Structure formats: C-alpha cells, structure tokens
Amino acid sequence: MPEQSSMHVHLNWAKERIDEMDAALASFEVRADQAKTESKVKVDQIVADLKERRDEFRALLKTQVEASEDALACAKTDLEKQWNGFEGQVKTYFEGAGKQIEQQQATFRDIAAAQAKAWSEAAEKLREAAAKVAAARSVDVDAALKQMKIDAAEAEARLQKLKQAGSESWSVLGAALAESRKAFDQANQAAWDALKGSGSKS
C-alpha cells in the first residue's frame, strides 16, 4: 500500500497539472478562433508553444510511470520545471496582452473548473482505495477524506468569489490558482499518507 499511495500522490499531482494545461489551451484556442487576423498569428503561436510544453510534460510523465515509482518521484522536479514554464508563458501572455479582462476571466474559469474536477477525482480515488482498507482501520482515512472535501469546498468558494469579481489582474487570478493548487497538493499528500498509515496497521 505505501508504494501505491506514493504513486497516487505523484499521479494526482501530474494529472491536475495536465488538466489545467488542457483548460488553458482550450481557452486560448477559443480566443484564437475569435481573434482578428493580426492578433490571431500571435495567439496561434502561443497555443502552439503551450501545446508543445503540455505534450512534453505528458511524454515525460508517461515515460516515468512506465519505468517505476522511483523514477516518477525523481522526475517530479523535471515535471515541475515544465509546469512552471507553461504557467510562466500563460502569465507572460496576459501581462503583455494588456487589459483582456474577458479572456483572463474565461481562462481563469476554465482552469478553476479543471482544479475543481481534479479535487473531485482525487477524492474519489482515495475513497475507492479506502474502501479496500479494513473498516476497523479506516478512521484516519475517513477523516482525511472529509478534510479533503472541506478543503476542496473552501478552495472552490475562494475561486468562485474571484470569478464573480470579474476585474482582477492575471497576477491576482494566478496567485489564487496557485494557492488552490498548493492546497490540493497538501490535501492529496495528507489523504494518501493517512491511507498508507491505515494499511500498515493491518
């Protein structure tokens, strides 16, 4: 169980980042379709660059998952660098794009929805794994799952508040997404650690 729970932590982390990449790309693609000819070339180039970064991230993840859990844990640093590059490119685009509040809000909503989906999927995976643990030993797991759901609801509420504000800069929106992402990573780790501890007591 410890080996499996550690793998889940890494995979949930990576899947959440890929979901965000996909959401950002979908938002940019809509923008590219709506852009005027002169800005369409620029947006198309951003989309192409972001797709390349996402595809490199996926390829590295796939290679490492097929290799072993240890390889995946070691590759997390490289994956984080690729994620940071992707995220930095999105930030640079919005900082250089002027006041494209509508596009920023659309991208923020899409990424926030991807985060909410990742929280839900991670909680469901944990619930399924917890169901496999003996009922007498699942108190810690139940508590961790409950906390994960509470944390998810709080993160979603904060993101909803920003969605409704409508005029925040990308740096404010990005910081809120980063805070939610950090909370997801911590909740994901704590939940799988609780499950790991539960399994080792048997």
Mean pLDDT: 78
DSSP helical segment count: 6
What general outline do the C-alpha atoms trace? globular
- Provide the gyration radius in Å: 18 Å
**Strand content bin:** under 5%
Beta strands, count: 0
What gap, in angstroms, lies between the N and C termini? 11 Å
> Which structural class should the secondary elements be placed in?
mainly alpha
Which series of helices and strands comes N to C? HHHHHH
Low-pLDDT residue spans: none
Plain-language structure description:
The protein has 202 residues and is mostly helical. It has one domain. Helix content is 90%, strand content 0%. Helix 4 runs antiparallel to helix 5. It is globular, with a radius of gyration of 18 Å. The mean pLDDT is 78.
Question: How would you briefly describe this protein structure?
Answer:
By secondary structure, the protein is mainly alpha-helical.
Characteristic terms for this protein:
mainly alpha, 202 residues
List the SSEs and their pairings:
Elements: H1 2-34, H2 37-67, H3 69-96, H4 101-131, H5 139-165, H6 170-200
